[in-house]
Specification:
2 copies of one chain form a homodimer.
Chain A: H1 3-15, E1 19-23, H2 31-37, H3 53-66, H4 68-79, H5 90-114, H6 121-128, H7 131-163, H8 171-188, H9 195-220, H10 244-254, H11 263-266, H12 275-304, H13 314-322, H14 328-361, H15 379-395, H16 400-403, H17 409-430, E2 438-439, E3 453-454, H18 460-484, H19 486-518, E4 531-538, H20 543-555, E5 559-565, H21 568-581, E6 586-591, H22 598-610, E7 616-626, H23 639-648, E8 653-661
Parallel strand pairs in A: 4-5, 4-7, 5-6, 7-8
Antiparallel strand pairs in A: 2-3
Chain lengths: 663, 663
């Protein structure tokens, strides 16, 4: 809790005799839990430091850069269906993808400047397009973050397996264990200390540049050989001619290289001031490195005749050909690639819970997702992500090529929505020439949410054209993607998207409805309760029930004790004991020839509740047996619990549990 | 409820102003449930008619007689390991088993006369040997009833499959479905109408006598052929020489023929008077039929050269050889055998819950097992039996030969304990010559249980010798069984037996301990509660919590409302709302910088409870949100529930739930 609000609460309490305020500094001790997840952190401990461009690149680029580890291979996988000759198409396709990348980068650069407080697709769509597009962007991104974890982890394990083929049969358990490991690390809370991120990111970039540099120089000197002992090429489907459809399919696969490009726009606030400027420069650098790596890998892969395979990745083939063997340099490249892929999964573990919390805060997901756990992270979102991603890994057996058709479609939907939103943003701003800044006229998503104010921008036209063009390009790619990958798995995403959106809306309606019913506006408190009618069902006369009777009598003079006599002999015993131990209290015995226990009591209570006087309430005192040893619960009927649950839904009835702990 | 006790309750209530009694005649309507399991039956509807010898034979003999369907085959299975030549040993082995059968029958005949109210092994051991032997007998019998279901059903399906080989791959699902069917029938409650039992039992006996008669006459006229196209003999283990161990193993397998012989001793009370006499005569008849069938089947099987097989049962081979083909007569024999095996499983569904209820009544199993369901049957025992037996069928893939090593060892343990108990019974009775009847000096198992009185019997010596000899014979067989079948699976039983007994004792100790703690003997009621300290935690100020506040204020003037401020801004909102809506009531705000919700409340309440005055009690009012739509529960934290559960175990605290149902 921030100190200034703390002060505010203290102030209010000081002025009001009926209100007191105290801060509880208590940290609970839970040995093993804390050892595993770390000691709790106070709300005031939330990190506030900002980062520069170099560290920012390391923190935000791992997702985007890591996709170079599989993008080339996934283009080749499709081209291979049309035979070895078609593989050379990978180079022009990569160039096309890089052009798309440049368009998207420029578009996002504009977004970063327009939304200095964070311009993710969800926010941009929410600000400019309204509820449904925002929810579509949110759902698409959430799905894609899950797929980022599954794809990156599967690809990371594929790199590992390329270097250590003995691990081939254990791909799935290794991938799942790694997801669990990242989950635990994130539940502890990753301090974005820069160094932790910088080392693997720059190491990867460095190693790849060295590899590609060697490769190009060898190529130019004519000493670059083809892959020795290439892995057997496996076709992922039936062989086909080199059709336009196939080429588009390969292109769609390759666009996986663009995933992660939006990361910086979500995290602008993490940068040092001038943050929009710094974030924009970092974005440019990232795009530059990404372009170089992607084109380089595609070119050298083609030069050495690398083939797509589930047994050895293209990166591994490339490294061992350039460095002529599985030597130290080779191992460093593969190790760096594996590490950056793990870092990429880790990025999703930061993005998914944050977006989940944002959507939950707007009331479209369960509110619990917006609560921070003891380590100040959105624990529930982290666990949810780990669980669903692991499920995907198991279902798709950690095969990257099977996951790719589901991947990236969500990213392109969010690109399209974000760019369209920006185009509209510039168009609206053009109307404000010479006027005061104004908020958007859209209905805000939540009562607590207000739109960012819009100001006039003199360059609105070129900016609108850039974003509009970006929207059209990414929209077309998304369409190509949906059509060409439909059969391979994209249909799953196209079905899940509206389902998720419907879920968001259902959750939202519930919260809205609830707020309406609980509101105090126009509420008139009814008069105080004047009379209590107390009913207490008992199963026998013993210390536990007599103790509960003592409590019942403290509530009201009007106490009726109920006993259901299922067994006549036992019923008689209860009567005689009652006469001895509570001769002055009222006992009603209900004979139940059909051995029903709850129904006669429920009927009796309901009857009493229906006939209660105004300002009277019926309190049911339930004496409850509580065993301290868990299995002892099995030795007793759960009648008290069932009764409680049924009575809770009876109007005008309040349930009191008087426990008797015996063990 | 019986009418005379009903009258008694009415009488007590009439004389005491504070007690009222009324009988609830209400039958709840639960459509599909009743259609499936039948309408509830009143306690007064319990059947009281008794049966004669002919019907008695039908009701009690199915278990024993049905074992002839597999006993011969299971002898052959073992002998086959020593080669085809060894199969002829089945005839002398069967004769040895029949001699054992005669000894056991005479022993039980004596038990029936000594315990006319039911003389099962558990009761006889309880009356004469004490706690541990009784529990051993009980555990052994419960296990064997489960195995009776598994073995009979597997054998029944094997007969079916012999006639319709197409069903071979579906043995397990068929067997499990049949167990489920019998479970439902028994949950409805089997009216032992005699006819239902008589038809299949006498039909089976008749068909088998006809078959064997044909067989013997063909044998005498020299027209009995050997089996045509016999199934391939499968060895269940490695081939072996004809060792003594192997012969004993075959003998042990064959003793499965004796299972079920004890059934009549459990059900003496069902017979018409003179019941001991009628039960005894029925036992003799049953033993006679069993002997004839078992010897006949073994002899003819040997004569036709039947071989043991999992594909076609010996009974099937016998029937198609005698009747020369798979004709109507063949189908009738196999059908009758299948039916009697199903009836045998059904017997266990009557015995297991009854014995379970008996043991539960003595406090060694959860009391719920002694409660009768809406159809007057011990529903929980029936479901438990069906579940465990189905599990066995699945684990052992419905193979009779795999189940047999686990079977019958429990029966022989109970035989041994029962006969030893009877021997001791006669010895003790000899001491009473010329004295009054006396109860056993053993510690009774339960306070409510009294031993049957012992009277002098002039023939005590021969009777003691008979039972003593029976005990020795069955004891030796049990020992042989345990040794020869140890490896094949008997070890499971030998491990489970002491575990079950330990479970019985643990349950018993819990009940004894509980009774001691709840007893009113020496109990002095504390004075009435004078003061109520009410604490009410709230998560916000709205209709639900203000409604709960209204209730809290009706309990006491000393009401403190607690709010844990995890989020400072929300905390401030609560304060301001409180000042507006409940300005005169006390609010304590606890600032929780570690975002803990429950712990500060629990601490506060515990502190209040520890510092309470004499005759004061702390009542915690928990306003609880109850969604009507199940998944809406996920949209709210379960804080109220967790709080309630933790508070229930806090000494001196009573929990009141004030629900607000909103949907």
């Amino acid at each position: 809790m921030k100190d200034n609000t703390d002060k505010k609460l203290t102030e209010i309490a000081r002025q009001d005799d009926h209100i007191s305020y105290k801060k509880v500094g208590h940290i609970p001790k839970r040995g093993i839990w804390h050892w595993f997840f770390g000691r709790p952190l106070a709300s005031a401990d939330a990190p506030h430091q900002t980062i520069g461009k170099a560290v920012g690149l390391a923190v935000f680029a791992s997702d985007a850069l890591s996709s170079t580890a599989y993008a080339t291979q996934e283009i080749l996988v499709i081209l291979a269906l049309a035979g070895m000759g078609a593989l050379s198409l990978s180079v022009p396709l990569s160039i096309a993808i890089v052009i798309l990348l440049i368009i998207v980068t420029i578009s996002y650069e504009q977004t970063i400047h327009a939304y200095p407080n964070g311009g993710g697709a969800y926010i941009v769509a929410r600000e400019n397009l309204g509820e449904y597009p925002a929810l579509a962007a949110g759902a698409a991104l959430l799905m894609d973050y899950i797929l980022t974890v599954a794809v990156s982890m599967s690809s990371g394990v594929a790199q590992l397996v390329s270097a250590v083929p003995d691990l081939l049969p254990y791909q799935v358990p290794i991938a799942v264990s790694m997801v669990m490991f990242i989950m635990v690390v994130n539940l502890r809370g990753v301090r974005e200390s820069g160094v932790v991120f910088s080392i693997p990111t720059y190491f990867f970039v460095g190693m790849l540049f060295i590899t590609l540099g060697f490769g190009v120089s060898k190529y130019l000197t004519g000493t670059l050989h083809t892959v020795t002992n290439p892995p057997e090429m496996e076709l992922i489907g039936p062989a086909s001619g080199l059709t336009v459809f196939l080429v588009l399919r390969a292109f769609a696969n390759g666009t996986a290289a663009l995933t992660g490009i939006e990361a910086i726009s979500n995290g602008i606030t993490a940068f040092k001031e001038p943050r929009s400027h710094n974030a924009g420069v970092t974005l440019m650098w990232m795009a530059g490195i990404l372009t170089t790596l992607f084109l380089g890998i595609t070119f050298i892969s083609h030069a050495i005749g690398a083939v797509p395979s589930e047994v050895e990745t293209v990166i591994s083939q490339l490294a061992r050909t350039v460095f002529e063997g599985r030597n130290t340099a080779y191992l460093l490249v593969v190790g760096a690639t594996t590490t950056i892929l793990i870092m990429a999964a880790n990025t999703a573990f930061a993005d998914f819970p944050r977006l989940g919390a944002l959507i939950a805060g707007d009331g479209f997901l369960p509110r619990q997702l917006s609560f921070r756990g003891s380590r100040l992270v959105y624990s529930r979102g982290i666990v949810l992500l780990a669980f669903v991603a692991s499920l995907l890994i198991v279902v798709f057996q950690a095969r990257v090529s099977s996951l790719i058709p589901l991947y990236a479609i969500g990213v392109f939907l969010s690109f399209t929505l974000s760019q369209s939103g920006m185009a509209l943003h510039w168009w609206r701003s053009s109307k404000l020439k010479g006027k005061k800044p104004r908020r958007a006229k859209l209905k805000p998503l939540q009562a607590t949410h207000a739109h960012q104010a819009l100001t006039f921008d003199a360059n609105w036209l070129p900016k609108m054209i850039v974003n509009g063009f970006g929207a059209i390009c990414t929209g077309v790619v998304m369409f190509v993607f949906a059509v060409t990958k439909f059969q391979d798995g994209a249909w799953v995403v196209l079905i899940l998207l509206p389902i998720l959106m419907a879920g968001f809306l259902a959750v939202h309606n519930h919260y809205k409805d609830l707020a309406k019913r609980l509101t105090l506006e126009g509420f008139k408190l009814p008069g105080p309760i004047k009379r209590q009618k107390v009913i207490m069902p008992i199963s026998g006369v013993h210390r536990g029930t007599l103790n509960a009777l003592r409590y019942a009598k403290s509530l009201s003079k009007d106490v009726t004790v109920l006993h259901v006599a299922v067994d006549a002999e036992a019923g008689e015993k209860v009567l005689l004991k009652w006469q001895k131990w509570a001769p002055d209290d009222n006992l009603v015995v209900l004979g139940s020839p059909y051995r029903l226990l709850l129904e006669p009591i429920l009927r009796y209570v309901k009857n009493a509740a229906d006939n209660r006087k105004p300002n009277e309430i019926v309190t049911v005192v339930v004496p409850e047996f509580l065993p301290r040893v868990w299995w002892h619960g099995w030795l007793h009927t759960r009648a008290a619990q069932l009764l409680r649950l049924r009575l809770l839904f009876t109007d005008g009835v309040v349930v009191v549990e008087v426990p008797y702990v015996v063990d």
